[in-house]
Every structure is written in structure tokens, then in C-alpha cells.
Design brief:
The protein is of the alpha+beta class. It is built from 24 helices and 23 strands.
Amino acid sequence: MEHHSIHNHNEHQGHDKHSGHSLEMFKQRFFISLLLTLPILYLDPHFQEWFNYQAIKFPGSDWISPILSVVLYFYGGWVFIQGGWRELHSRIGMMTLVALAITVAFIYSLAVTLGLPGMPFYWELATLIDVMLLGHWIEMASVQGASQALAHLAKLVPSVAHQVVGDRIEDVLVSELKTGEIILIRPGEQIPIDGVVVEGASSINEAFLTGESRPVPKQEGNEVVAGSVNGEGALKVQVTRTQDMTTLSQIMRLVEEAQHSRSGYQVLADKVAYWLTLIAIGVSVLTFVVWLSLQDLTFAINRAVTVLVITCPHALGLAIPLVIVNATAISAKNGILVRNREAFERAKDIKTIAFDKTGTLTEGRFAVQAVYTEGLSEKEALAIAAGLESLSEHPLAQAIVEEAERKNVQLSSATNFQAQAGKGVEGTLDTKIYRVGRPEWIAELGIEFPASLRNGLAESEAKGKSVIALMDETRVLALFVLADRVRESAKEAVRQLQQQGVQVVMITGDAEAVARTVAEELNLGRYYARVLPSDKAQLVRLLKNQGPTAFVGDGINDAPALLEADLGIAIGAGTNIAIESADLVLIEDDPLDVARALKLGKATYSKMVQNLLWATGYNVVAIPLAAGVAYNFGFLLSPAVGALLMSLSTVIVSINAVTLRRVQLT
């Protein structure tokens, strides 16, 4: 087993092609454009031939399609013309290709209507504008949907809370509540603010947060969050986070940030569109020159225009947004909040994943793991120790009290209670003096220490576990072995990640012995002990030299490491500032979600690549045929057949994107 003891943030932002565009604008333009397209399709000769009908003819009916196309071009297509113009000043991409295709189709079709020999492209122009508007609408809706749902939820959260003031209940504005105040939540009410239950028991629906509709039982000491709904019991809750600090507010801010983050796959689609544009223009010009020398001007123009029109990527426009909308839905359902879409996509490359131990792989709170006794039963020892420790504030003392409660041990009540600083506590139970404290206290008191207990102490300390001794005035009666409990799902999470070919590393500030014990329990081959908070980021930088690295943490001191990692994952939303620095936020305190997130990242990537291949593969076949390479064999790809091929490609891309929902994350 390899172990080590050791004593800047990249911003990924791109231009936003949707600046100044709204979801409603795309939606409205799509539906109006669709309505304007229907008469064009009805009047098109190809449709009449395919569906064997005769369109109604009347004076001026030949001008319906040209006039509607003018409206469509300037109403539905103008957003792409503007986008293409902007891209010409930076880097040509999808918008340029769409703008070029619709402009060429529009001008050429009008020229045909005004007398140029050839077939107009009105229905190709109209459907192209419709599909592109639909693609952009879906893309924007995919990230805005979650935000709108949360904004709607925020409106539902009550603005008034029932504050407990002495013996009375006062209704006060939630905005005026301060940390530490007590509020009452009646059965069926929505919880207005984050807090900790101080009295009562109930079950709470936290579906908005976790996606889990099953009510979660809550009792004293459990945390409740704003936006969740109380069940059958009344609860008294102490306020822990107010206003903008509540989990709901933090999540809303995260979703908003995700909307402004640029998708790396969209960048990939833009790269494809860039090359496709260059190829389309190149082939179109070449086609024109070659056919001009072989045939007449009309034939040359017709072929050149056909190449440009059918190169336009209907499917490419939908390939990425459709996968994004499905990936967003799946991640939200699994309690994975994507703060930075571009970073989420980097999940597929992760070679090493570093976990901060405390609060991530472990629960971050002590629990009794073993009890050694001499001359009395385990229950008797727990009753005496918990009787004294119930009066202490120390976290180790709380662990002993919790263990006694878990085993339904009746606590003895102590008198003459005294805390001895740095040593432990003492008190009288049934006229007898007992002490509970650090093992070092035993030597100071000079009392008998039985050999069996001495062996237990040596064994526990070798494993880096904390030990508390129970003593009377003459000898040591029992030892309680305490350790930070490893999360139940941590072992499975590590196994799954290793199965995915990811190296799992543990980082902890704890002593070597503690780190080794946890690493052995989790079957980890590599860990770093005694790492100072300030050194975590430096360690992540070191790991990055061996390949893309993710870091999983939950504490305030994890923020620099989360920023340094290629992929920063914060566990447990709303707990602290760590989520501000993360790329992914896992709502539940479940390390298994880390494996799910990486799996989803890889599945999303493969769907994106498949869709891009489908979307562009059609062009590999269509462009040469449209250019007329098979003309001598009597085959010439008409714009209408090209458009049908394009539609088929779009359907395949859509179905493939939806199959992402069938990916098994567990």
C-alpha cells in the first residue's frame, strides 16, 4: 500500500451565442414560423407529387410561398443572420452555416420565381428555419427549466414564520428571522428557512432537493431545509441559515450560473459546423466552376445552391441540445447539480479522483466502535459513562450518549458534576465517584489498569482511534473506542470508481494511523495523511501531473482544492462555502453519487459523439451526390431528396438522445 505524509482557478468561459435572446422569443418564433410553413408545404410541387393531391389554384396563389418565405426569412431567420454576422467577426460556426444556407436558398428561390430556370427551395428554407429555432429553444429550455421550477418553489416558500418567544407564538416575517431563533412548523406546512430540529418528530418531503419523494424522518438534531414540506408532526426548529444563505437560495444561484456556462459539446458542434461551412463553400464553388465548363450557367447555379442548402445541419443543430436536455433531467433526478456544464463534460477524462476523508468518505462525527470492560457489563459501563457525559458538551461525550440511546440503556443520573479541563469529567452516581476521560488521566491518578484493558488501548491507538476511559476511585472499569464512522456507501463508491478505471486517492489531515485504518477498510491503495488545509490544492496540482483529476470535498478549507481540480465536486448542498467553488454539487451526502456523476458524464459524451457522427455522416454522402459526382450514372441528388435524408438524420439524432435516459447509473 502506497502512502504519503506531506506537511488558482481556471475559468472556462466562452462567448454566449444566446446573448440578448430569450426562451420565449425562440418559442414564439418557432410556432409562428411553423404556421407560416404549412401553406408552403401544401403548395410545394414535391409534396403534391409524394402525397398525390392537387393544391387549390387561384389568381396569385403562386406568390403565396415567395411572400411567406420573405416573412419567414426576416422573422424566423433574422436571429441566425445576426448570429452569423457576429461569428464572422470572431470564428465562423453553426450560425454562419445556417445563415449562409437560408440566405442562398432565399435569394435563389426568389430568383427562380422571378424567371431564373430551376426549382425553388421554399420548403427547404422554411423547414430549416423551423428546425433551427426548435433546436435553440430546446437548448435554452434545458437549463432554464430547472431554474423556473426553483423560482416557482421560492414563491411558494412562506414569507411568514411562527416564532417561539417564551411561552407564546408570534408570526414574524421570515426575512426578519435571525440565526439561533426558534420557530414552530405545524403539520402540513412548508418549511420557510433552514434549521435544526430542537423538539418534536415528523417526516418531511424533500423531493424538490433530492428528487426522492419518500418522506424523510426527522427528530431532534436533524437538519431541515427551506422549501421542503412538513408531514404529520409539529416541529420546533432553530434557525441556522437565513435569507440568501439557505440551501434553496444557493441552489437557485447555482442553476443560474449553469445557464450562463458554455457547453463544451456545443463548442465541439461549432467546430464541426466551422469545417462544414468551409467544406460547403469550397465544394459549392468547385461545383459551380466544374459544371459551368461542362454545362450551362443555370445548371451550374442549381448544383452549387443545392450543395449549400443540403449541407445545412438540421440534425447538427439538434444533436447537442437534445442530449443536454436529457442529461440535465437525469442529473437533476439523481440529485446532481451541474454548476458548470463544460466541467461536467470533463468527467469522461478523469483518471484520478481525490476524496477529502472527513465528512465525505466518513460521516464527520464520532461513533462508538468497541467497548472493553473489566468486572461489569457493557450496558452497565454505558449507563455510568453516558450518565456523566450527558452533562458534557464534548463531541466524544456526545458519541457515548448516542450509543447508550441506540442500545436503549437507562442513564444513571449524576450529582456533583465537574469538568476537569483537558482531562475529562467526574461526578457522583449512587454515592460512588466515577471519572470519564482521556487515558492519560489514568497514570496521573495512579489507579489500577487491568492488562486486558491495557491491551485494548494499545490496539486501538495503533489504529489511530480515540479512546475514553471509565474509572472509579481505584481502577479502570471500561474503555470506549471511538472513530469517525465510514459512510455505508463509501466502500461501494470506491469499488465502482475503481471498476470504471479511476484511481481513488484519500486526502486527510488526520494522523497516519487513522488514515491507514480507513484506507484499509475502503480498500484504497493510496492515501495522504497529515495534509494541512493549505496543502490540499498543492497536492491536487501534483496529482494533475499524472492525468485529469477530480476532487471531492465538503469543507470550507476544501475550496482551493475544488478550484484547482479539473473537476470539483462538493458533497452535501447548503452545508458551507465549498459549493461556491465546485463544478458539480451532490445534494445528498452520498459518495456513490460521485460514481454516478462520472458515469453520466461518460454516457453523455458518447451520445454527443454518436449524434455528431450521425448529423455529419449524412453530409459525407449528400455533398458529393449534390455536387453531381454520380451524374454520369444517371443519378443526381435533388434538394428534395437531400432534405428527406436530412430529416431522417434528424429523427435518428432525436431518438438517440432520448435513449440516454435508459443509462443505468447504479
